[in-house]
Write a structure and sequence with these properties.
Its main location: secreted. With about 140 residues, this protein is α+β, with helices and mostly antiparallel strands. The chain is about 25% helix and about 25% strand.
Length: about 140
């Protein structure tokens, strides 16, 4: 009668697979330490493909040209993007919608933010430097800011 050590071998193989698979779920968000948000801004309607995005990390600030300012604004409001103080900008009434989306963690809590603004100027006025992604109006500091 032949016996095979299948249960022991199966257990060892399973343990090895689990040990190797543990770091596999460490995506860009998991690798970023501290406070971080994956930011996207989509121009146009929901079917638009004109989307820009970046990972905003705040320890140290990086992700876009105004990352240090964005991180300071977020720290001041404990990561609540809706609480970022409005900037006093004169915006046109031109309808050119942009949708801002932020996902990540702030102070150990998940952040899920999504708002559509009538244009990029209103986005900049209501969210400060947070969504100042390169190539968008309001992404660079100007005399009006």
């Amino acid at each position: 009668m032949n016996t095979f050590p299948v249960p022991g071998a199966l257990l060892a193989a399973t343990a090895l697979l689990l040990a190797c698979a543990a770091p596999a779920d460490a995506g860009p968000t998991a690798r970023a330490g501290g406070d971080h948000l994956y930011l996207t801004v989509t121009k146009g309607d929901a079917h638009s493909s004109d989307t820009r995005g970046t990972l905003l990390s705040c320890d140290p600030p990086q992700g876009h040209a105004r990352a240090a300012e964005a991180c300071a604004q977020l720290r001041a409001v404990k990561g609540d993007i809706d609480a970022v103080p409005d900037r006093h900008l004169y915006c046109s009434t031109l309808y050119a919608p942009v949708t801002a989306d932020a996902r990540g963690r702030w102070n150990g809590r998940p952040v899920n933010y999504r708002r559509t603004f009538s244009n990029a100027c209103l986005l900049a006025a209501r969210t400060g430097a947070v969504f100042a992604l390169d190539g968008l109006p309001g992404s660079r500091r100007t005399a009006a800011t």
